[in-house]
Input
Amino acid sequence: GESVGLHLPTLSVQEGDNSIINCAYSNSASDYFIWYKQESGKGPQFIIDIRSNMDKRQGQRVTVLLNKTVKHLSLQIAATQPGDSAVYFCAEKSGGSYIPTFGRGTSLIVHP
Amino acid sequence: GAVVSQHPSWVICKSGTSVKIECRSLDFQATTMFWYRQFPKQSLMLMATSNEGSKATYEQGVEKDKFLINHASLTLSTLTVTSAHPEDSSFYICSARDPGQGAQPQHFGDGTRLSIL
Output
C-alpha cells in the first residue's frame, strides 16, 4: 500500500538473530511483489521478488513469504548482520504496469 | 549488473535557483525512467515517468512546470527543479527499467540530496 504518516516502524535485533519484516498491501490485484533495501543516503537496492502464484521464495539468507488471503508479505533475514541495517521497503505491482507502489518501510537496526 | 548513475549526489543552493539532476543508465538503454521524491523517514513517492523522445507523464499533484523532465536519449533523463524554494528540499531518486530483463524490477540511482537555503 501507499506510505502514509511520518513515523517509520523500527525493528531492533541482535547480530546473529533472524529478522522478520512485515508488509501489508491493499491491492488484491497486485501480482508481483518486491523487497528493497535502502541504506542511508542511497537509492533502493533490489533484494528479492515473488509472483502472486507463489507463496514462498528463498534467496541467499533471505526468504519472502506471501499470504494473498490476508494481503501480507514478509521478509525473513537469517543470521542478521550489522550490514543488514537499513530501511526495507516492500513494493507491489499489478497487471502490465512497470511502476511499483512502495509500502511504508521498516527500519532494521542490528546491534553487534 | 545494470547500473543507474545519478549526478550530483548532493547539492546546496540558494532559493530561486534552478537545479538540474541527471540520471544515466550505464550499461543498458532505458526507454523509460522514473523520478521519485523521498522525504526523511518516508517512502518513495513517484513524481513522473520519463519517456524517451516524448513528454513525461506526471503524477497527480506534481507541477510539471516546476519539475521539468527531459529524456533526450536512451541513456539519459534529466530533472530540473525550477526556481527552487526550501520546500523543494528533498531526496530525489531516479530509476530505470532494462527492457532486456523482461519483468525484472527497476534499477535505482543513489539519489540526489537537494537542500535549498
About this structure: The radius of gyration of chain A is 13 Å. The longest strand of chain A covers residues 30-38. Chain A has no helices and ten strands. The interface with chain B takes residues 2-3, 6-8, 32, 34, 36, 41-46, 49, 89, 91, 98-100, 102-105, 107 of chain A (CB under 8 Å).
